[in-house]
Amino acid sequence: MSEDLLQKLKEWRKDTAQKEKVEFFRVLPNNVIEDIARLKPQTKEELLGIKGIREKKFAKYGQDILVLINDKEDRIGLKAVIQDDKEQSESNTYSVSNYLNLLNDQLQFQKGRVQGEISSLKIQETYLFFSLKDKKDESVLNCFMWVRDYRSCSIDLETGMEVIIEGFPEIYKPGGHLNLKVSTVELVGEGVLKKAYDKLKKKFELEGLFAEERKKSLPDFPQKIGLITSKTGAVIHDFSTNLGQYGYQVKFVNSRVEGQTAVHDLISAINYFENKDIDVLVIIRGGGSLESLQAFNNEVLVRKLISLKMPVICGIGHEKDVPLASLVADLMVSTPTAVTVVLNKSWDKALNRIQIFERDLIYKYQETLSVEKHRLDTITGDLKEKSTFVFKKFELLRVELNNKLVNLGHILKDANVALNNFAKLLITNFKRNFNQFDDSLNNTEKRLKTVNPLRQLKLGYSIARIKGVVVRSTKQVNHGEKLDIQVADGKIESQVNNIINNK
Amino acid sequence: MDKNELKNSLKKLEDIVEWFDKQEEVDVEAGLEKVKEGVGLIKTSRERLKKLENEFEEVKKEIEEEDE
After folding, report:
1. Which residues of chain A are under the pLDDT cut of 50?
2. Which of A182, A251, A374, B39 is 20 to 30 Å from A295 by CA-CA measure?
3. Is residue A386 part of a domain?
4. Which residue in B17, B65, B66 is closest to A357 by CB distance?
5. Would residue A232 count as lying in a domain?
């Protein structure tokens, strides 16, 4: 690789990024720049052959990059670069370098997945070499890999290991031999994968990465959701179908999820969400074997997940071995639908609680009212009782009065009777007295009759009166006075002739 | 109404129900005020919880796009 060119490219990228006010990697990521510095593409086609450069990028930066390369190499004029390949007919003679460039240009499209056994291994600071041996006929493929790519595979390569590698071939110009430029390495066979899985799991366990207390809790009412999964397949459909209609804002990053090759996608998707304002990050995929899920057992990926500030939910279907990503996730479930259940939970619960509150509120107030009503009833009852007491007293008094009146009536009646009796008695007495009186009168009359002077007159006695006064003594009379003598049948008028006093 | 408001409303509703439970003797007038407040909170909370369309946005990452 031309360090000189690499520096130039980096400077150019820095300027461009500043001009466009974007991050460096937005202009061109490191691996693309490194590839350019290594492969030194001369034509548009060669440049387009580099992974990470498409029409869009070429239109934007293509000429700049080619000028930079040619400025350094200065082998072919800029005009020639832009000229079509057709001009390079069979009669043309290439320089070694140009021919190798041409070959490399073509080889870039020979991407392949190759399985074999690692025979030799040499790891340097920024890159590694190894060779892959065919077990049957001992054919050998030389391999080159950037340490950065190697690290992201989180596999410790050892000689004798059976692996599948992915990459494209290129001829290393200074050495003239062919290398497979490896982008990913994956282990082959459940047994090996299982061993690697167990080893890493143990390591994480010792670090306490699965501990519950380390895990963040899912916020109530999650709304902004970061979603990482594959655009294709039933998983994303299941997820969006079962997500309740609560106004979620789902930001979705499409990522491969199958096999070792998914690691790049997944990590770059996680990186995308790292500083985004989301309530929760959701990573989902359907079930699979240890082999198909190996990206989720990747150490780099797992550590990345741990470093995130927001809670992570993993809904990754699995067979026996739970993916390590799920184990470190703040919440793990095994299906995309289960993730939606978790997300909906607080919303659903709120709906329920509202219903309960509604019921409770009415009930509590009714209770209050009924307590109040009861109190009112009690008071009314009390009052009634008290007033009855008053009335009762009045009634008693009335009865008493009545009794008294009746008594009085009796008394009066008695008095009346007594009075009547008394009157009768009085009359009887009176009558008796009267009769007695009558008798006594009769007696008196009888007695009077016997003493009646007239009776005496009849018997021959007479009464002498002088001047109307009965004469009882001689002294009453004087000589010559007229004397009236009363006899029984009349009066004799006479004159006193002589007075003879017997004494 | 945002989710925090919903959270607060639920908390307030909880407090109201608790208030009823705590009172030895509930003042009918004060109770009515609480009920009124509760009904308002229930109404706005229901508003928030009624069906709302989800937004689904696929994020196109530039690098991804180039890689595809």
Report:
1. 73-84, 86
2. A251
3. no
4. B17
5. yes
> What residues pair up with A491 in beta bridges, in sequence order?
A486
| Whether residues A225 and A338 fall in one domain | yes
Closest CA to A197 of A335, A330, A322: A322
Total-model pTM: 0.55
Q: What secondary structure letter does DSSP report for A60?
A: I
CA-CA-CA-CA dihedral for B16, B20, B23, B25, to nearest 10: 140
In chain B, which residues have their Cβ closer than 8 Å to the Cβ of A248?
Answer: 54-55
* Phi/psi at A158 (5° precision): -140, 155
Extract the tokens encoding A267: 């990590």
For residue A229, what is the nearest residue in chain B, using CA coordinates? B58
Q: Is residue A121 a contact partner of residue A152, using CB atoms and an 8 Å limit? A: no
The span from the CA of A280 to the CA of A311, in Å, is: 5
Contact criterion met (CB < 8 Å) for B54 and A246 = yes
Q: Which of A345, A374, A406 is the last residue of a domain?
A: A345
pLDDT tens, position by position, B19-57: 888 877 777 788 888 888 888 888 888 888 887 788 888
Task: Determine contact: A254 vs chain B, CB below 8 A.
Answer: yes
List the domain range (segments joined by +) for residue A272: 203-345
Q: Which residues have C-beta within 8 Å of that of residue B26, sequence separation ≥ 6? A: A364, A367, A368, A371, A372, B20
Could you give the number of structural domains in chain A?
A: 4
Name the H helices within A53-146: 55-57, 63-73, 78-82, 96-107
The last residue of one of the domains, among A188, A212, A232, is A188
A143 lies in some domain: yes
Has residue A418 been placed in a domain? Answer: no
Spell out the domain ranges in chain B.
3-67
Q: Could you give the CA distance from residue A382 to residue A239 in angstroms, rounded to a whole number?
A: 67
Q: Is the ipTM of this complex over 0.85?
A: no
End-to-end CA distance of chain B: 40
